[in-house]
Amino acid sequence: MQELKAAERKLAMLIDGDNAQHNLLTRIFEEASRYGEVTIRRAYGDWTEQNLANWRQPMLENAISPRHQWRYTTGKNATDSALIIDAMDILYSGTVQGFCIVSSDSDFTGLCTRIRESGLFVMGIGRKNTPEAFTKACNVFVYTENLTPTDDVKTTPAAPKADEAKPAAEVKTPGKAKPATIAKADTVKTPAKAKPGASQKALLNLLRRAFAISTQDDEGWVHLGALGNALQRIEPSFDSRTYEFKSLSLLIKSMPERVEVKGAKKTGTSTMYARMKDDSR
Asked: Is residue 151 part of a domain?
C-alpha cells in the first residue's frame, strides 16, 4: 500500500474519557492534525459521572462527539470495549486511513496492532507512564507531557562557551549565598540535557541506530527528514520535545560533539543534513 502524505490522510480520533485529560483536548486535536485530517472525533465515557463533568466545553469547542457508556460494574468500566468495537466498525468501513487513540491504557495495544496489520496509520497520545507495548504498537506515540505549555522548551541550542559558564560555577559570596541566582544560571547555561528519566546515553544509541537504517551518501550524510522518519520507525514515542527542544534540527545542533550538521532548515524544504561523528573522521 502506498504511504499517504499527511494532507491526504483522514483520521479517526477515539478518546478514552476515563484515561485522558480534558484540559489538553485542543492541543491533542492540533497534534493529531499534523498527521492528517481528523474527520471522526469521538470521546467515550459514562458522562453521568461527576469526574467527567468538565469535558463538555472542550468537546464542544473541538466538535468532539460524546459516546455514552454506562458503568456496568465497579473496578472495570465498559468504555474500553465500546471504543474498540467502534474502532473495528470504522476500520471495516474504509472511510479513514488512520486512527488516533487517546489513552494511556495498555488494553488498546491489541487494537493498535490490528489497525497496523490492516496497513493503516495508527497514532497514540498518552502519558509517559504508558506501557511500552502500547507505544510500540503505534506508528507514532506522543506524550501528553510534551503538549503541556511550558516556558523552558529551548528554541535555540544551549551550548555555552566555557568562559560563559565559568562565572556561574565560581560564584563566591562572603556573606549570604544566593542559591536562586546560581540555580538560574545553571539552568540557562547547561548544554542540551534530557529531562529527568530521559537518558542521554539512550538518545545517542537511538541516533546511531537511526543513522544506520537511513539512506546515506558516500560521506555518511543523512537528510534530516529521513533521519526523523527513521527515529520514529525505531521508537514511535521519539519526540524532540522530550529533550526540551521544539524540533529535531535544534536537538541535533545542540550535540556538536557527537553529530555534525551542514546546510540549513529554511521555510519549506529542508536542506539540512547530519552525520554521527566517530574516531575515523
From this structure: no
